Amino acid sequence: MKIETQELENHQIKLTVETTAEPLDAAKHQAARKLARRTKIPGFRPGKAPYGMILRHLGEQAILDEAIEILVNDIYPKALEEERVDPYGPGELEKIVSIDPPKFEFLVPLKPRIEIGDYKSVRIPYEPKQIAASDVDEVIDNLRERQAFIEAVDRPAATGDILSLVLSGKRKEVTEGAEAEIVKERQLHVLVKDSEDDLEYPFPGFARSLVGLSKGEARVLEHTFPEDFYVENLRSAEAEYTVRVEEVKSHVLPELDDEFAKSIGEYATLDELRAAIQSELQEQATAEYDDEYGEQVLDEVIKLTNIKYPPQMLEREIDQVIEQLEERLQQQKLDMSLYLKSRKMTMGDLREEVKPVAESRLEKTLVMLELSEAEAIRIDAEEVQEETNRTMDQLSDYMEDRSLPKRLEQEVVSNVVSNVMMDMLIKKTMVRMRDLASGRIAAAEQSEESTPVETPPPADSTADTGEKPKKKRKKRNEEP
Amino acid sequence: MTTIYDVLLRPIVTEKSNYLNSDLHQYVFEVTGDSSKSLIKDAVELLFDVDVLRVNVVNVPAKRTRRFRNRQLRVRRSGYKKAIVTLAQGDTIEIFEGVK
Questions:
Q1: C-alpha to C-alpha distance for A241 and A222, rounded to whole angstroms
Q2: pTM score, whole prediction
Q3: Which top CATH class is A285-471?
Q4: DSSP string covering B32-83, please?
Q5: Cβ–Cβ of B17/A43 closer than 8 Å?
């Protein structure tokens, strides 16, 4: 077997493999036997005809095609091994150069190569948002608003009150063909407020003009609609609205005291409530900032990194992005063809569109994995177990409904495990990178020593993780 | 009338004949109904230039069968005469070549 290799620029390798005629002959016989099983040759039971008979019956070409496939399947792994090529995915038979002697050209995508630059030098100031007292006040105001009760009062309406009133409206000038009446007498509840907003009913600024009305009072309001009003037949109409107030209700907010704090939840004093809100907000803000910060750090690292991957990998990432899009569409009860139609696109256009997204996603994942390796980040078995248990519990209700075949179940389990491991790995790496970039490395160093390092990296451990959940499942079965 | 060239109608290539061929060195032909063993021997020796050791003859009986589409309709399949020719060691017949 003669092999020539030639590296291509898009991170693929071209293998030219030449063999002798004998393996081809053997493959031909094998192919004939395989084909004979499917073809009927008069005088013979399927699969029992001799080679010559099959050859005469099916023709040389059919057997040759099949034989080449068999031969290629045989040769390809051998060639890879001999040349020590580390492929990312299945190679492609690019060209059959000649049949006699058999000579083939393969295109093999290579595993991505990632050369990370000096990622430890990346420094970005870490400054999470601090929660101010005013933010806490806002939340508390919201809470009060929710607890507010409504009470009828006997005074002129002020901002913040709710008026229940009877409204009717008509046009001042009746043009032909248009009805004079705009609004028939009807009940309306209006919140009196300071501001104007465009979608107010019956016209913008209506609520503001109600200030000062008290119970039983009536008022006539005149309004000229603008030319570009959103209701077509009211454009530039002059209208007259009659308003009669039936009741003025005020919106009473609860007192801001310890009593209020108790009514919200298990807080003894107002200060306690404030503290709880503060810490929650802080946590939220920090988590948000952490995500953002991590992205920034990662972007910086990617800039330092030299990534090379074969086009097939990008294709697969695009597939994934599109798959996710499809899932989202399905949640909205849409399907792909409809979506494409509404955007006047073809599948090819869509692929082109998501390409940059997929590219950056792919790069991030690759860099992330490389970083986790460079930083020797390990996840330990117990954590995985715990996390998996949690996920499986969520899944289990769903799974028990259907009697899934056992094999499929196993598949789901190992899928979950590998997903969980991946997530954890990425999370840990992210934390590590944040610590590095924000200069908290010293602290991180210490914590790393305390975490046990015993699990092998996830890529090699798929075999034994497949067994772990089994044990767990048994245990669960024994419990009831 | 049949001449010596008309005796052999076709070679019979089936799983069974293939077995006879490879294991017992026998070749199977369909022959005309009025041919005799000696006539068959002469014909094979003349046409294929081989030595014939023995000729066995079978009259394959006609059989009734039914049409696949119309189950009622009965069809008679005509019978034929089959000759199994044993050749001398080392002789082969071209038509069966490759069938091994």
A1: 6
A2: 0.49
A3: mainly alpha
A4: -TT--HHHHHHHHHHHH---EEEEEEEEEPPEEEE-SS-TT-EEEEP-EEEE
A5: yes
| Contact map slice: A 29-58 vs B, CB within 8 A | 42-45, 48-53, 55-56
Mean pLDDT for B4-31 is 86
C-alpha to C-alpha distance for A444 and A365, rounded to whole angstroms: 23
Number of cross-chain residue pairs from A and B with Cβ atoms under 8 Å apart:
29
Share of chain A above pLDDT 70, in %: 79
Pick the closest to residue A249 from A157, A187, A144 (CA basis).
A157
Which strand (E) or helix (H) includes residue A3? strand A2-7
Sign of CA pseudo-dihedral B49, B50, B53, B56: negative
Per-residue pLDDT tens for A414-452?
Answer: 777 777 777 777 777 777 777 777 766 544 444 444 444
Chain B CB within 8 Å of residue A124 CB: no
Residues of A within 8 A of B97 (CB-CB) are 52
Contacts of A42 in chain B (CB under 8 A): 14
Find chain A residues with C-beta within 8 A of B100's C-beta: 50-52
The CATH 1.10.3120 portion of chain A extends over 285-471
Q: At what angle do helices A21-36 and A51-58 cross, to 10 degrees?
A: 80
Residues A109 and A124: their CA atoms lie apart, in Å, by 36
Closest CB to B99 among A42, A45, A52: A52
**Residue of chain B with shortest Cα separation from A47:** B15
Please name the residues in contact with A210: beta carbons below 8 A apart, sequence gap of 6 or more: A157, A163, A165, A190, A192, A219, A243, A245
- Confidence bin at B37 (pLDDT 50/70/90): very high
Asked if ipTM goes beyond 0.85, one says no
Q: Select the more confidently predicted residue: A400 or A369.
A: A369
What distance in Å separates the CA atoms of residue A84 and residue A124, rounded to the nearest whole number?
Answer: 41
Question: Is B98 in contact with A56 (Cβ distance < 8 A)?
Answer: yes
Whether B14 sits inside 8 A of A44 (CB atoms) is yes
A52·B98 Cβ contact <8 A: yes
In chain B, what residues touch A32 (CB-CB under 8 Å)? none
Token readout for B74 is 């009965």
Amino acid found at A331:
Q
- What pLDDT is stored for residue B96 in this prediction? 60
Residues of chain A with CATH 3.10.50.30: 149-252
Interface of B with A (CB under 8 A): 12-15, 17-18, 97-100
Q: Please, where in chain A does CATH 3.30.70.1050 lie?
A: 2-111
Q: How many CB atoms lie within 10 A of CB B48?
A: 18
Test the A interface: residue of B12, B18, B93 with most A CBs within 10 Å: B18
Architecture of domain A149-252: Roll (3.10)
CATH top class, domain A2-111: alpha beta
What is the pLDDT, as a whole number, of residue A408?
63
Sequence length of chain B is: 100
At A141-156, the pLDDT tens digits run 777 777 777 777 777 7
Strands annotated E in A116-237:
149-153, 162-171, 181-191, 218-224
Which residue of B60, B96, B99, B100 to mutate against A (max A Cβ within 10 Å)? B99
